[in-house]
Structures are given as structure tokens and as C-alpha cells.
Amino acid sequence: YLDFLGDIRDGEVLAKFLAAAREAVSAFVGFRFYHVPDDSRTGSQLCAVAERLHLRCYDEGSLPSPQLSLPPDSETASKVAGKKSLLRHERFLANHGTLQVRHLRRGEEIRPHLNGFFRQHVERWAGTRHQSLFCDPAQCRFYESLTHGAEQADWLRFTMVQWDGRAIAYHFGFCHHARFLWY
Hints:
183 residues; 43% helix; elongated
């Protein structure tokens, strides 16, 4: 479910991109591209370009990604939104305070909330065997950059649930061709 941003249909563009990246890294070992969709041309492009650049291409299998297909006016969307357990929790929160759900798509609206999103994720994973990826400043920078890049493509979906003015839940994901992908 990850792919290059931009038009790389021309193998020469991809070859030049990879060659420049390779030359910019001292002690270059190789590239790893995870989660390239099977229906993308990128896989076959990478294999062809790898050969030209004297690299080897390996397919390491697949890993499922949580996604929900939500075509407009679909029965699935209605079922998800009307799920009894969700409605019960929503009613409780609304009856015991001020509940607000904000759906943001523009980077300038989202960026002020990213640190809260990161902090909540770190707190959520504290005390477990796995540390939050947002303990790594590079991951935080990646999501900040992703916020800008995905905004340009109009794929970004950031939701914040606030209760009595305090953020109690966040969602960072994407919607592309009626497929909703969440992190």
C-alpha cells in the first residue's frame, strides 16, 4: 500500500532517481521497498531498473494492511457508522460532557495537533513490550513530511475526538479511490 509519489512510468526516471539516491549514500548496501501494491507497476519497474543498475530484486511476500472499501452510498459505510458499540460509547460521552469529532484534511490544520497525536501514541504503548514508533524523532519528522505530501494529493484524513475540550483519540490515515486506510 505504499508507492512512489509522482509519475515513474518512464523507467528512465526511476533509474535516475535510484542511481542518484545510491550515489548519495556512502557504503550503499541496497534499497528496501516495503508494501508496494501488487497492482502497481512499480514492482515490475523496480525489477527492470534493478537489472540495469546491477542490483538484485527480491519479493519478500506480503503483509496485510487494515483498509475499508467505502464506495459512496454503500451499505458497508452505513453498517460501520451505525455499529451499536460505537453508538453506545458516543452516547455516553455526549451525555457526560461535550463531545466533538473533527475531521481535518489540510496540513495547516493538522500540524498543530501532531505533537498531541505523537504524545498520545507514546503513552498508549508505554508499559508494553513494544515502544511507540514516535519515540524515534525520525518517525515524527516522517509523519510531519507525510502530512504535507499527502495533503497535496488530497489523500490525508486526520480525525481528532475531543471530549470537554481535550483530545481523547486521534486517527491518521488516507483515503484513495474509495479505500480508507488507517494507521
